[in-house]
Design brief:
This protein is of the alpha+beta class and 372 residues long. The protein has helices at 2-23, 169-206, 213-226, 229-236, 250-253, 269-274, 287-293, 298-302, 309-324, 330-339, 343-355; strands spanning 49-52, 55-58, 64-68, 75-76, 78-81, 86-87, 98-99, 107-111, 120-123, 127-128, 139-140, 148-152, 161-164, 263-265, 359-361. The strands form seven sheets. It has a three-stranded mixed β-sheet, with no helix packed on it. It has a two-stranded antiparallel ribbon with strand order 3-5. The protein has a two-stranded antiparallel ribbon with strand order 6-7.
Amino acid sequence: MCNKHLMLVLIILAFNLAVAADSGLETPRGGGGLRDRPQRDVPCRHHQEYPHDNICCLNCPAGTYVKSACTSAHERGTCENCDFDTYTEHDNGLPQCLKCTKCRPDQQTVARCTHTQNTECQCKAGRFCAPDQACEICKKCTICKDDEVKVRNCTTTSNTECKRRESTSSNKSGTITAVAVAGVLVSIAAPIVIVAVFRRKKNFIAGQDSQNPSEMEKVAVDSVSSLSYEEMQNKLNGRLCDSPHHPLLMQAQADDDLPCKKLVPLNGDKSLTDCFSYFEELDVHLHNRFFRHIGLNENAIKNRENLQPEDRVHHLLNVWREKVGMKASINDLIAALLLLNQRLSAENIIAKAISEGHFEYEENQPREELQF
């Protein structure tokens, strides 16, 4: 009887094994489990684990990376600290740390890079970059015009806001009064100035033969400084080197480095504006005198005193170009530098303007001497 029962059990067991084989099911063998499942099916915990070799390993902490993964599920492998100039901000399963960002020349560093934080950069003073735009370059802040008032200052993330100044009756009456007073003063001073100039010219002609060369040079320099801007333009535009008697240029005449021919643009008005940055090398202590020489008034100069030196040069040169219009010429700017004895700066600017393809020498120009 027992043999019959044993035989029945064996038959049932054999039948179950046969059914399992036909249905494709596998019986557990050798402690299999997660390792026998495809890696995409491994359910790792988000932000806590990462998949590796069909198992889940715990993330390495911020400031480190995974040097070698774990060999048992839900354990942490070997983590290594980030090297210099690299970082990881969060727990991670990265095989290496991320490279620290380098701030661009038009930006300044707000926070240096650490093992757990990337570099923070922002635009330098006088420049901005809107956060809703791709910040590939920091733009220069707008300067409000003379007929505008500032509504909001420029920040690192927003431009200056300006609005047109509203004219009032008091302003109009004040302007009329100022014009009337200026007219009276001019009518009083004009005869005195005319008499003084006449006497000075007469004394100069009478004593011309008896003066030594150094005295003659002094009178010539005084004559140049007393010229109006328009007269200085007419006399010095592109022909400074043509006069061997010009006291400020006698040194330059002994050299062949400084061109005696006028510079002509190769790309129209763009040639001039492209060269404005070259004038940034001018000594900041000479800025006011230089801009007075090219005809800018004191208000225009003082309104830009709060700018960085290079930005101030660029803005004031644009003001000068708008004021002069089509007559704006790099030769006038070079002439002003030479009158300030800034020969080296003049030579450098001319060399850059020619080498960069903005200007060239004008050929076959008639040579005229200055008449003082």
